[in-house]
Each structure stands twice: as C-alpha cells, then as structure tokens.
Design goal:
The protein is α+β, with helices and mostly antiparallel strands.
Length: 467
Amino acid sequence: MTKKSYSVGSETATGSDALVQANALLDEMFAPSAENCFAVEVLSKVLQFNTEKSLPAPDAPFGENVKACLDYVLQLASSFGLTVYDCDGYAGHAELVGTGDEALGILGHLDVVPAKAEEWIYPPYSATVTGDKLYARGVMDDKGPMIACLLAVKALKDAGFAPSKTVRLIFGCDEESGMQCVEHYFSKMPYPTVSFSPDGDFPVINREKGIYQFDVICGKLPNGVQISAGERANVVPSLCVVTTAKPLADCGKQTVCVKTSEGFTYTSTGKAAHGSTPDEGVNATHILLKALANAYPDNETLRFLSEKATDTSGKAWGIALSDKESGRLTCNLGVLRTASDGTLTATVDIRFPVTYDCAQMCDLLRANTPEAFDIVPAHISEPLHVPSDSALVTTLMDIYNRRMGVKMQPIAIGGGTYSRCLPNCVAFGPLFPGEEQTIHMPNECVSLNNLRTMTELYLEAIYRLSR
C-alpha cells in the first residue's frame, strides 16, 4: 500500500478552522475500505509486535520486542514531524511543541498481557481485519487508543494547529506488570500540567478506588491439610485444591473429591473475574474454606478465613467502608499457599473508597485481624479523585456528550489505570458503554467504526485541552 500525505500546508491555524481541517484529514486516514485505510495500516504494524514482557536486554529493560515496538512508534511519530524522546527503553514520548510553558500529557502503553494462540480465532499478533473488526492483542489495551491519539495529533499538526500547551504523547512499556516504566520516566521528565489516559472507559473515569493488596501470614493448618488456590491477588481464583486426612461435608456440586492412600483431595471450580469486581465471579476458595472450618472448628486460621475473608463486602472482617463518591469497598481472596511447615498465607486484594487512604486501610485491617497474624503489604496505591466540576472533567464530558448525543456523568471504578501515576489526570476511553469487553481476553478486537469515533473524540480533546 502506498502511504498518503495528509499535509494541507504549514499556515498556523488556532481557531475552529484547524479542528474542521483536522477532521477532514481523518476522513482520508479512515478510508471506507480496510484494504486502503492508512489508520488501519499504521495500527496493524504496531499490533504485529509481540510486546509481552520478556527478559531484559541492553537498552531493553522489558525485552527486545517491547523495545523494537517503542523504536518503531517513535520513528513513526518522527516521520509525522513530531519531536521524540526515548527514556532508556523504559518509555518514550512524541511531542507537538506548543507556544507556552505548559504541557498536555496523553499517557498510554505499548506492552500487553500474554495471549495464548490456541485460544484465539486468529493469531493474536497477526492484526487480522474481518468485516468491521480488527483482531489483535493490544488493539484496545492500549496500542489502538494510543495510535488513535497519535493520528489525531498528526491531523491537527497537518491542519496547521499551533497549540499553546505542548502535546506530549507518552508511551509506557510496563503498565501490565508493575509500571516501572512511568516511575523511571517521571524521574527524568516533569509531569504534564494536565493529562488524560486512553486506557479505561468512556465517558470519563475520574474516580478510582484505592488499592491495598497484602499477604496475611496466618497460623498453621491442621495436620494433613494443605490448600492451594489462585495465581494473582487481583483475579478471583477459579480453582482451589485441598488435601485433607478426613472427609469434608457440604462441598457443593462444583467440587470433585478423590480418595487417596493418604486421605482425600478436593478440587473446587469457580468462575474467574477481576479482583476489583469479585461478585462478578465465583471464588473457588470460599466453599472449601467453610467446609474445612466445619471439619476443624478449633483451627483459628480456617475459622478466621472462612468467616471473615469470604465476605466480598468486608463487613464480616470489620472493614466495610463506603462513600457516595465511589461506592463500597470490595475484598477478593486471591491466592492461598501452604508452606512446608503448614503455615497458610492468604493474599488479598482490597479496593477501598476514594475518601479514605492507605494508612487508614492499614489501621483498620490491623485492628480487625488476629494479633498473631502478620499483615504484609504488597502493592498499594492511593485512590484517584479528580473533581467532577474540574475543567479537565467538564471539558471531556462535554466533548463526549455532544459527540455521542447523550447526557452521561463521569464514572467511578474499582480498577486502576495509568491516571493515578500523575496529577490532574483521568481516563478517557477507549471502551464505549455497552461495548463488548475483550480487553485481556482471547480475541481482543475493536470495530473500525469505534476506532474512528474514538479518534475523533481524542482529536477534539487534544485540540481543546491544549489551546
């Protein structure tokens, strides 16, 4: 395919004419046919990089493929006439330099969660277009939205728009596994004045609950009892395996028992879900913990976990917080592991309301957990709360509501986005209300119509927030 040029001249345009011209350029970038679509061609090349985190290499802290993708995106942005910067392979940015001292940040990521090819209709890194949909890992999270923003900046630049604020597209490379990318980047670069992250939901996410993930080092289990469940704190475990010397009662229809020479092995199945929404899943640990507690009523560890940690509201634990801004606390018992000496460790993920902080959460947990049990924080993050009447939120809400012909309000979530990594930032898309959720799932996809619509929304957001 021959790449097209979308330049309309270098004359500076600061009024609404630049916005009109930029939208006209999007018409050309999003040609009706996918076989002749500049936007799809550009995005597909980025999607074909397998950017799952891998072993570090020189100048590639998250793996050579991730660095190759970052290099390609920065070279692409440079070819569009933007100023680029590589921050030691951790992250990079592309800038449309403004006339003033302030900056508009657009923060997204190029890394992706792993994809098992056998679970996909099409190879996850083939960037396959079928009908109105483009399939690939990262097409929604977060390569698609970030390339949409890059194309929006290109359209504005080619339309002659001269922003007051520098428009800075920041490409992270480790959002899915620790966010070391932005920690390193912001140790060397200043924070933007105002920002949005195209890595959440529309219309606007301005409240994100606090995150408190921790290990509870409990006491020892009864002789002959072992428990294993879960892999990550922020996932509802769909499988729990228990070995015990004596039979258990009331284990439910989803539990299979196998008698062995040493006793019994129970395997309970549930339904996985994100740890921030535990009631959307079925936690496989709950029924077996209660069965074990009934079989061994004198064991403090089993009694505590079965009575306190299986309540997803935190009420039984004595930690049920709520507020009108973001709703109630959620509690997910994500991992159970038995040590060689019989000690059980439970890993828990709590999402707490935005009007509280991590110190308060820690104090409340300590006050309501047996003194003999250690609480060891793992990953904690303060809540995000950008007021609904702030200029940032009202501007983005106005853009969305007018474009979509609706009257929605900003939303709160239990999940965490890049937005909490820097001040004065909210999540703005890419998932539309009612759209099928395929992020982190097999067959992740975006409709080309939605890709075009989000690009239009991002274009106007960049235009209005950077003037």
